[in-house]
């Protein structure tokens, strides 16, 4: 036993005239000590204060009082002012957890069990999942092995409280002198005090739910450059329109649309990142042509809004006995890739054009390399097919992503690898090994070359296609990262995780610039609005949440789904949000209303309150499919909503 | 396995009924496993899951006990006791159930990696791929010659080869291989590099394929035959027949 610690303890007991306890301690100290004191000191090594040392060596008598402490705390909270009640109510969950852990740690399993059974039912619903994991930890040995316990022990649970509530809490603690409570609060909780009006029940509930509490205020302080960079001047000669930018001689309506779409505004968006902030691949001629074509498609776009709901074209994968685990659609809606649980990937063409592969080497040799249509000639018409099957992974494929130029496909799988496939030869080009655990999501950047992958190892990694190791690692989530979504300006990456938070990362330096809590269960899908300011997220808790990235606050909560939501997509001009899930429906939400409210009242004073925009129900339409869970939604350039799912015929 | 009811009436029936009760309840293990699943909140599972879980449990426990037995004999103990078992469990968990690395370790690595600047992207780089050794681009096969020449008996080159070799070539069969010891390599590659296409007609002896040690030339030449035996292998290996390989020609 650590002599120093023992001496400190004895001194403390002497000071407080706790003679019986002191005598008991002296008696016991004479015996050879076999219990894990080193474990105890490492557990409280972070604080290093005598009081914390003591809390780990609590004698028998005080433990029965844990129940007392907890009940007295909860009754205090009940009896406090309504204004403070809800904020203080957040305290109960972390205090409960740490009290339980202390009981287990000190090997008082029976008391721990009693404590758990009595108070676990009082916790909120969304904590029950974590509590169940907690209930399997009954002995100290199990505690050391369990991941979740490690997280709780090493990281601090964050609570946000107004100054008034905090003062009343302090008064209570001073009155009752519960040492253990104090020590728990000091070691394991971080109370972020803000000056302002205490939050009401809705507001508190809106941001609770994450594994480690809420987000600290300084986590959301950094300025995020969410704007889109100015479109480059492209002068590609086409048959009709001239892309010079000035269209005075065009009919008025077309000119308006054109200006909006081509976005040739002279002033740069102040919120946009400078183009040289991160190195981006240069625009090749083919890319410029692509851009122009997509702008032309955009001219024929159907404007959507609350009076004009989208048409939905749904692709059903029938007879897919090997379960479909992922679907990806290319940006121009011409290709669809599905990943299966038997590790295959199949690529289909959604356009009338069939999928062609490259000719053999001897034939390519004979081609005239200077010909204009060399790309066309390279492709072999004879072996064109409607779909191609790609083999390579050794585990279920969890995500697919097409490159913006449709030349490459990325897939990620449970075998821990991300594979790059060529869509010219339909073969596997590269295997990126970095996660050693299932990779849940992968996505190409809107410019190509970069891609992010999210895995079970709680890390999201940024790669370049020519790097065999990741370029950036986004570490911060407490549990696996389940989904990633690149920002339209390629400077930020949003990740959603099963620790119920959504984080935004800066590609330049890998920092986490936004932490957004509010989901009550794992987040499985994210979608950016086309202008880059708003982020929608949804997951197992069936709600779709809309966030304002500029301040990192929650704007709206869209309830309506009855089962987990697995896909989200904004319409091309950003006025509608479509969501689909396991409840076999596609729901369309009117987010334009929310944006109008925001634009009207742009008050920055309400930053600390997650004031949800009061708009009533935003649901515009609900479209059921025939027993087909919706795996992927995608708005084409003309605002046709494409959906994909696998027919469940049981 | 017949249910007791299908046995029919008679003295046999009572015998069977005693041996197998009407209602077949799950064995105790399966009941325990079902209870564990219920405790962990898993309510919706196929019946086979219980069997799989039981198999896993049995295998895991057996592994642990085997290792514990090894540790206890190493420590020269009479019997296995809990400390052996604990050691075996710890050892097993380190190796097989690897959990993702702890957060602070990841933070440290991330800090290092994120401090390096983003790599510059070379313009006009074509399909940007990692260095070849990290790609799956190279062939993992070598082709046999496509043309199956008729078996010529060109005595001269063969004699030349065998005289160079300084040992009797395994003549008896017309399908024997010519091993190419180091002295022979001087002559063969020269003509290969100059006239790749016509080489096969020149140097083809009664064997349809010719040895081409790939290491000499640096890379395999796909139009020539390939073989796997280098060096003097006449006595030990079976002479490979031409139609050993099933090729679609």
UniProtKB/TrEMBL annotation, chain A:
Task: List, as start-end ranges, the regions of compositional bias called Basic and acidic residues.
Answer: 258-269
Q: Where is the signal peptide?
A: none
Q: Where in the cell is it found?
A: Nucleus
| Keyword annotations | Nucleus, Repeat, Transcription, Transcription regulation, WD repeat
- Residue stretches making up the TFIID subunit TAF5 NTD2 domain: 62-189
Pfam assignment, any one = WD40
For region Disordered, the annotated ranges are: 233-282
Q: Which GO terms describe its cellular component?
A: SAGA complex; transcription factor TFIID complex
**WD repeat start-end pairs:** 317-358, 390-431, 432-473, 474-515, 516-557, 558-592
Main localization is: nucleus
Any one of the GO BP annotations: transcription initiation at RNA polymerase II promoter
Q: Which family does it belong to?
A: Belongs to the WD repeat TAF5 family.
The protein here is known as: Transcription initiation factor TFIID subunit 5
The organism of origin for this protein: Branchiostoma floridae (Florida lancelet)
From TrEMBL, chain B:
Q: Where is the composition biased (Low complexity)?
A: 222-234
Subcellular location(s) of the protein: Nucleus
Q: Which GO terms describe its molecular function?
A: protein heterodimerization activity; transcription coactivator activity
Extract the InterPro entries matched here: Histone-fold (IPR009072), TFIID-31 (IPR003162), TFIID_subunit_9 (IPR051431)
Question: Where along the chain is composition biased (Polar residues)?
Answer: 193-215
Any GO BP? RNA polymerase II preinitiation complex assembly
Q: Which GO terms describe its cellular component?
A: SAGA complex; transcription factor TFIID complex
Keyword annotations for this protein, in alphabetical order, are: Nucleus, Transcription, Transcription regulation
Protein name, UniProt field: Transcription initiation factor TFIID subunit 9B-like
Query: Origin organism of this chain?
Result: Branchiostoma floridae
